Amino acid sequence: MQTCPDLKRNASVHLCVGFLRRTNSGPNRKMVPVKLLILGAQNTGKTALCVRFITKRFIGEYDHKKEVTYRCSRLVDQEAVEIEILDIACKSSVASLESSIRWADGFLLLYSITQRLSFGEVQQLKKLIDQTKQSLVVPTVLVANKADLEIGREVTTEEGQRLAKDLRCGFNELSVAETVSSVEAAVFQLIRLVLDQQRPLPDRRSYMLTVRHALTRKLTRSKTMQW
Ligand SMILES: Nc1nc2c(ncn2[C@@H]2O[C@H](COP(=O)(O)OP(=O)(O)OP(=O)(O)O)[C@@H](O)[C@H]2O)c(=O)[nH]1
């Protein structure tokens, strides 16, 4: 296993993957910014997931003292997306946690299948997210990590699926250590949820026009009746 003690030493890490070089999108193409926050109990693999997504490598141990913002650019369904993932310090105050929640557009909620306590913690975290965001729909994906440690499993896949349904989240059970593709799939699923929420409703304009016409007709009719 490789160690990476410096990753959490810098307040912000800029790991920009060469997206523009790999695609035919020109430099003038407008990127959509998407801000993600990864949350979960200690030792669930939050930093490992971020580093895996950004670098495709699994690094065993990290220094956990400071928060880190990971940055990269990816194409998601032909959309150029500028991604920021905030991995906060494990001993953050509630005030700083709430401020990070306000900053983010979407949330990765991580628990470890070998740690039942971490499963309980994601429920508390989702409650705090909903209270802080005060929005009916908050893009969130629940990630059950360490699926390679079947022998130490304390949370079943069905329990994870049920919780995701209750919390109205996406769900992925995976092993950051074993597969990079499932990590990418989970992050992309969240990005899609964020992009969907940011897109204007396709029929919002026509709906507004319909309402306007109906109101105009009603006003004209009532005027006619008055005269
Ligand atoms: N077996 C296994 N170990 C993993 C997996 N993901 C992470 N780990 C290990 O779990 C430990 C914790 O991972 P971290 O990424 O440091 O966890 P964290 O949630 O960022 O921890 P804190 O910053 O303390 O909250 C490390 O030893 C990782 O190597 C996985 O999928 N399988």
Task: Describe the fold and architecture.
The chain is an alpha/beta fold and 227 residues long. The protein has a single domain, classed as Rossmann fold. Helices cover 42% and strands 21% of the residues. It is built from seven helices and eight strands. The strands form two sheets. A six-stranded mixed β-sheet has the order 4-5-2-6-7-8, sandwiched between helices. A two-stranded parallel ribbon has the order 1-3. It is globular and about 70 Å long. Mean pLDDT is 84; it is low at 1-25.
CATH topology: Rossmann fold
Q: N-to-C SSE series?
A: EHEHEEEHEHEHEHH
In CATH's first tier, which class applies?
Alpha Beta
CATH architecture: 3-Layer(aba) Sandwich
What's the story with the biggest beta sheet?
A: 6 strands, mixed
Bound molecules: guanosine-5'-triphosphate
Fraction of helical residues: 40-55%
Structural class: alpha/beta
Strand content: 15-25%
CATH homologous group name: P-loop containing nucleotide triphosphate hydrolases
| Poorly predicted spans | 1-25
The tally of beta strands, per DSSP, is 8
Radius of gyration of CA atoms, rounded to a whole number: 21 Å
Strand order of the largest sheet: 4-5-2-6-7-8
CA-based shape: globular
The pLDDT mean sits at 84
Task: Tell me the distance between the termini.
Answer: 86 Å
Alpha plus pi helix count: 7
Instruction: Give the domain tally.
Output: 1
Give a short overview.
The chain is of the alpha/beta class and 227 residues long. Helix content is 42%, strand content 21%.
